[in-house]
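Appendix B. Raw example, untouched.
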Amino acid sequence: MPGGRLTQQERQQIAVGLADGLAYAEIARRLDRPTSTITREVTRNGGPTGYRADLAHRATQQRTHRRRQAAPGGPQALPQPHGRDAEAVQDYQENLTTVLMTSGLPKMMARVLGCLYTTDTGSLTASELAQRLQVSPASVSKAITFLEGLDLVRRERDGHRRERYVVDDDLWYQSMIRSARANDQFIETARQGVDILGRGTPAANRLENAARFLDFVSEGLIRAAEQGREVLYTRTDTTSTNPAEPGRP
């Protein structure tokens, strides 16, 4: 990350940029920072309407202090596989969490999903998630229930009959199909309104246009998901182009 951690002066410039209605990308350009840095900074500190430079700076200092205190016995001290930089992995996981939050996931759900996606196995138990995220098992359970409802994670039993929470390639396909099908109810209801409001009236036309648009988009999404499903099972390494087995990274 260019320039290391954000300074208090940079945070003040971010606050000014937000007040002026600037996009994250423009604020990042003026500070010579990655857009993701600005997005993460604003999202974790009140959002675009609640961001305060002094509060954000103080909160960051407190988080850093807590992290240093927890480091000797916490998950940050554990060695990373494949020679990975532990701090770089942690920073990336926080960045991924921010991106998931900006897409609409609540913070804890985004943290759990980000944690699962940055493990090689793609699966963890409730206790493993609680330890890695330093949260209560109840928080993990609530997040998993929410993510299951969106088809973003699934449960399975391992050889020791422990329940594990899993992210795999097919979940992206299932989530896309579910998202497309979620429009069906609105489409049907909108078309019912056309008859009630009187076909050809401005209100009826508005509903009909919305229904036609969502119907077209949903069909396109489903068709694209079906055609692109094989991409999820194609290895991305340079040594092999053979399709991977379904459900395996």
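End of appendix B.
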